[in-house]
Design a protein that fits this description.
6-stranded mixed beta sheet, 4-stranded antiparallel beta sheet, mainly beta, 10 strands
Length: about 120
């Protein structure tokens, strides 16, 4: 498990940008894939971006709705994961969480950070 603190969310107009940050603690951070998830009101939490460990090549993967607009990155020396979000749309409105990939029933979630995109 990792403990995480997400930040960087806010209110932005459609077409705007935000950068989310995730500070993680735990010795397993650097050797595991990390991801950003989001949960919109009334919907299940979904994985939108992931990145493998550095030793596994730091390979990124994105859900179709965010491809070409979101960029995930990680800095192991700082135990930090970022999510750069460009060209934001109202449908991107959600609480965003970071955590290990894959998540499981035992995953301990942080409080997340709210992203609200106005039209």
């Amino acid at each position: 498990q990792v403990q995480v603190v997400e930040s960087g969310g806010g209110l932005v107009q459609a077409g705007g940008s935000l950068r989310l940050s995730c500070a993680a603690s735990g010795t397993i951070f650097s050797t595991n894939a990390m991801g950003w998830y989001r949960q919109a009101p009334g919907k299940q939490r979904e994985l939108v971006a992931s990145i493998t460990s550095v030793t596994s090549g730091g390979i990124t993967n994105y859900a179709e709705p965010v491809k070409g607009r979101f960029t995930i990155s990680r800095y192991n020396t700082k135990n930090t994961v970022y999510l750069r979000m460009n060209s934001l749309k109202p449908e991107d409105t959600a609480v965003y969480y970071c955590n290990l990939v894959p998540a499981s029933r035992s995953t301990i979630w942080g409080q997340g950070t709210q992203v609200t995109v106005s039209s």
